[in-house]
Design a protein that fits this description.
The complex is a heterodimer of chains A (about 250) and B (about 260).
Chain A: E1 9-18, E2 21-31, E3 36-40, H1 47-54, E4 62-67, E5 70-71, H2 76-80, E6 83-87, H3 98-108, H4 114-124, H5 140-153, E7 158-162, H6 170-187, E8 190-194, H7 198-204, E9 207-212, E10 215-220, H8 222-229, H9 234-246
Parallel strand pairs in A: 3-8, 3-9, 6-7, 7-8
Antiparallel strand pairs in A: 1-2, 1-4, 4-5, 9-10
Helix pairs in contact in A: 3-5
Chain B: H1 3-18, H2 21-45, H3 55-85, H4 89-93, H5 99-129, H6 140-165, H7 172-180, H8 195-202, H9 205-219, H10 224-255
Helix pairs in contact in B: 1-5, 2-3, 2-5, 3-5, 3-6, 3-9, 6-7, 6-9, 6-10, 9-10
The chains are: A alpha/beta (about 250), B mainly alpha (about 260).
Bound molecules: adenosine-5'-triphosphate.
Adenosine-5'-triphosphate (ATP) sits at the interface of chains A and B.
């Protein structure tokens, strides 16, 4: 099988410049069906900008994004129908209840049998006790579960998760990780995952890509990256690269 | 364009009104207050009715029609602002939702707001001032339709500016329409404007509607030419602002502003 047809997402030489500043610099990677790809990098490395380009809300300066064999720039609607995302930093409308928010998202993505789909997802993420609550009144952990529910509700083939377990207690965080693994096992869901928790990254990711100052500087399994940098674990690799990042680059 | 995406957005905004007193007040209370104040002013001025024929009729009629335009604009801009305040733009524009569907939903919200406000205003005018807005006759229909479209034009223009310049431009949602009021000739005929301003007012579809309304009420003349001008200008300007909205969106996506506009 050729490389293109075997990947859910193929990113080639993706670049984003804001004026003279290059936030993402010729980044290329791919995600295979059912794969969890970890996206690591210190603050300002370009992770969010990359995800925003993959979601079509920031236009790349150059490079291409192909998902499910379709070019995002020309097949935006068909591609985004099969993608969803969740981020600790993105809110949901605060004046709506949890259930109302889920209904709106389900309609937006044209889901059928919304009532049972919402029931299912509420049960899966153990949200029964706050499903009728106004979103403004949720704790930050409950809010994280809502944004995750919103992302899983639409049965995506590709999911972008930006620190999905930040602000969750260890018990719920563990449950969420198993739900994600189960989704990937049962439906072949592919995930692009960012986290600042290195143990979680090691546990969840099949492969990891490491961004530094907008450039992709390492790619491989967690173990391969650790070996390549000659460090004890992923945390040490991260600290090493992050501290290098803080040294201003010479023009 | 997919209907389910448009109705999803409408549903989201109807949910908002379900339990929000300030939002409901925006539809019922403020327009009502407007009417009370202007109603009393009109009653006072009506003592000079003999000097300005049909004064009460066109003053209250103008007020109600001006509110149609104002609410039509607010329907668009406030719907966008609600998304901005809720930091929901990323959820929307990273979904399959198209800009055209977003605009269609805001226009539908605008029509709903106008309908409610008009019913409230027309009802109150009838009860409190024995003023029947239907006195304008069948012309009321094309007048209202054209004013709604002019409201959309100002609404889309304002929304584009807020998207481009961020939350600090938010005040435009309430002030922009008043920039158009002097050249809309709501309460006075176009002929009282100085020449240069008259030329600008001529390009404003709303001015032709209010001219037409006065024509119908005062001299009973059919406002054909006013309507032709209004429809023509509305068509050209609506296409223009929608193109501008798309261009602004492309610019914001390029600059990474779309997802940061609410921050
Ligand atoms: N719209 C923008 N205009 C100008 N510069 C931007 C814009 N968006 C991002 N940047 C810059 O691009 C760089 C990468 O930012 P980005 O948010 O992608 O980093 P990140 O890896 O997600 O960081 P963090 O872990 O802190 O979220 C930063 O230096 C940021 O200041």
């Amino acid at each position: 099988m050729d490389r293109m047809s075997n990947s859910v997402l193929t990113v080639s030489k993706l670049t984003k410049r804001f004026g003279s500043f290059t936030a993402v610099d010729e980044v290329s990677f791919e995600i295979r069906p059912g794969e969890i790809l970890g996206l690591l990098g210190p603050n300002g490395a370009g992770k969010t900008t990359t995800i925003q380009m993959l979601l079509g809300v920031v236009t790349p300066t150059s490079g291409s994004i192909e998902a499910f064999g379709l070019d995002l720039s020309t097949h935006r609607e068909a591609v985004l129908q099969q993608i969803n995302f969740s981020s600790t930093y993105i809110a949901m409308p605060q004046s709506l209840t949890v259930e109302e928010n889920l209904w709106v998202v389900a309609r937006l993505y044209g889901m059928s049998d919304i009532a049972s789909r919402v029931d299912q997802i509420v049960k899966k993420l153990e949200m029964e006790e706050f499903r009728q609550k106004v979103t403004r009144k949720l704790s930050s952990g409950q809010m994280t579960r809502l944004t995750l529910a919103k992302a899983l509700l639409t049965a995506p083939r590709l999911l972008f998760l930006d620190e999905p377990t930040a602000s969750l207690d260890p018990d719920i965080a563990c449950k969420i990780r198993s739900i994600l693994k189960e989704e990937r096992r049962s439906s072949g869901l592919s995930i692009l995952y960012t986290s600042h928790n290195m143990r979680e990254m090691e546990e969840m990711s099949d492969r990891i890509i490491f961004l530094q100052r907008g450039r992709l500087v390492a790619e491989g399994t967690a173990q391969a990256i650790v070996d390549r940098f000659g460090k004890a674990d992923l945390e040490e690799v991260f600290l090493n690269l992050a501290r290098e990042s803080n040294v201003p680059s010479t023009p | 364009m997919k209907l389910h995406r448009v109705t999803a957005l409408i549903l989201r905004h109807l949910y908002l009104y379900r339990r929000s007193l300030p939002r409901i007040m925006e539809i019922f209370y403020w327009p009502f207050l407007d009417l009370v104040i202007w109603g009393f002013i009109t009653l006072y001025l009506a003592r000079y009715q003999s000097e300005v024929p049909g004064f009460v009729t066109f003053f209250l009629g103008a007020l109600i029609l001006w509110d149609v335009l104002f609410r039509a604009q607010q329907g668009i801009t406030i719907t966008f602002l609600e998304e901005l305040w809720a930091r929901n733009l990323m959820n929307l524009f990273a979904s399959p939702l198209k800009p055209s569907e977003f605009l269609a939903a805001t226009m539908a919200m605008s029509v709903m707001k106008v309908t409610f406000v008009s019913i409230v205003l027309a009802g109150c005018a009838l009860v409190f001032y024995s003023y029947n807005v239907l006195i304008i006759g069948v012309w009321l229909i094309p007048f209202v339709l054209n004013l709604v479209i002019t409201g959309w034009i100002i609404g889309v223009l304002t929304t584009s500016l807020i998207m481009r310049f961020g939350q600090e431009a938010e005040v435009l949602a309430w002030s922009m329409v008043f920039l158009f009021q002097p050249i809309s000739c709501v309460f006075y005929p176009m002929e009282v404007l100085p020449g240069w301003l008259k030329a600008i007012a001529w390009a404003n579809p709303a001015a032709h509607i209010f001219e037409g309304m006065r024509g119908v009420l005062i001299s009973g003349q059919a406002p054909f030419s006013n309507l032709v001008w209004a429809v023509g200008l509305n068509s050209v300007l609506l296409v223009g602002v929608v193109i501008w909205f798309y261009r602004t969106m492309a610019y914001c996506k390029d600059q990474g502003l779309l997802v940061r506009v609410g921050e």
